[in-house]
Amino acid sequence: MADIRKLEKELWEAADNLRANSKLTSQQYCMPVLGLIFLRYAWGRFKAANKAIREERAKATGRPIPIEPADYTKRGAMYLPEKARYDYLLNLPKGEKNLGKRVDEAMASIEAENKQLAGVLPNNYTELGDDLLAETLRIFNNPALDEAGDDIIGRIYEYFLGKFAPAVASDDGVFFTPKSLVRMIMNVIEPERGVMLDPACGSGGMFVSASDYVRDHGGNPVESMTYYGQEKVEYNAKLCLMNMAVHGMNGKIVSGDAANTFYHDAHSLDGKCDYVAANPPFNVDKVKADDAQSAGRMPLGLSGINKKGEFSNGNYLWINYFYSYLNSNGRAGFVMASSATDSSGKDRGLRQKLVESGDVDVMLYVGNNFFYTKSLPCTLWFLDKGKPEELKDKVLFIDAQNYHTAIDTTHNEWSPWQLKNLTAIVWLYRGETSKYQELIDDYCSAIREAGDLIGGEAGSALAKVSGIDDLAGAKETLATFISEVKDEAKDAVEAAKRNERKKVRAAFDERIAGLEEQLTIVDEVLWLTEKFDAGEYEDVAGLCKVATRSEIEEKNWSLTPGAHVGVPPVEDDGVDFHERMGEIHSELLRLQAESDELMMAISKNFEEMGL
Known about the structure:
The chain has 23 helices and 13 strands. By secondary structure, it is α/β, with parallel strands linked by helices. The longest helix has about 35 residues, at about 25-60.
């Protein structure tokens, strides 16, 4: 993780060099920079897809099948004309005097192949200067990107979007949604086929994640999903189209005033969506009530209108819209300000009506520091108009504020295994116990693979893990082995020659980090199985609770997870309180006596010195 963050920083510094050494303003250089990242990202995905296609063709018998652009989109990549491929631009003759023009031509050729990108990609690279542009292209082609895989290229792309987010969205209450939150939404709404809408689509992260979900579950999103988006900030809409295209996707995105969801159903999708996923701007005010009412989509009723004829807070307008867009079996997952779960006034009545519909499915509280540019907490809401009858009277509440991985001091995320664990709670609530068991099998398989890599006695023990009963022993084995490797590392560094110690230490640090990552996997499966050992849902104090409609009514129709899950029990550390307090008191008396003796000795020394 640290190496990736180092790479992100290096690439960002190269991008910022354009601002410092070109004539472009911050707003002007933002899109060209993302355009170059777009090219590099597209090239990485193209290479991976191209390799897979050719390997598949090599195994085929009979008449050779020509390779077509659709072969790339099927694999989540975009077909690139030769002159738009990153290596073509890098390998132009040294001292190329028209590099900016060549990059402009590359963008134009991509637009010709992808009609939805017409007029979207930047075409002002001649303004950057050939030397500066060549240097930036070279740095953006950092070989670590290919060594790490295109998932890392995607992360770099998201990092750049996040760095630009303050400049792009500071006046619109918009901020980009972290991948782990988006993925959690997909895990719960489970898109398979049909129509998906994001009426506040930003850079298109919901669509990309939905396609990844479909592909991960054996489907082809190009054939099974249709994506619609609204994004009033035209700059963000361009990013959305670029982001979708680079993943081999198509979508119908409307931008500008016609895309203002408060006043327009731009695609006429009210009541027609299989899935709605969004991260709308929170707490928007000054929405003109008459115009918004004329646009409809308020099945839950109206929230508060002030004396100026404006909705004073747009949160429940969004909730109305998400609910209204769903068809009779549709599912919605969206990010919302945490205050909306128990806001008072007319909001409470709208929330009551939503609960009484039986369509509230899951409420998941997220702690601070998940967003790139904001530190605020939020709640993920999940609605399901196709809930089975046995769950109509129930809502699953999850409070995950203390369950995450700290990336650094200001950013948190859910690791892939933590995402699986949170999703497993939803599966058990829905009665999908087979998915839970498959996850346990995946954990055991990962631990066995770690054993094969480690080898030796410890590896042999890990390679035998086959079920829940083996997990505690696996943790002890791996923890003991890590401790032994740390001791070995200490001895090896001390024994190494002075000029070799840094290299030896780095090698051991890398090995230990890999082992500790494997230990984290064991910790995560233990976290899950200690709570749901039997593979059946049960309430866990401080974490999750299935509340009935009457229980929610008793809480004044609050949908705040913390109000329902309660407080986690205090873990017994095995220490007798009175015994420990006695030990602490004795220790304090001893330290006080030593302090008194020291002060006396100091005073005596001063006296002998005549002071």
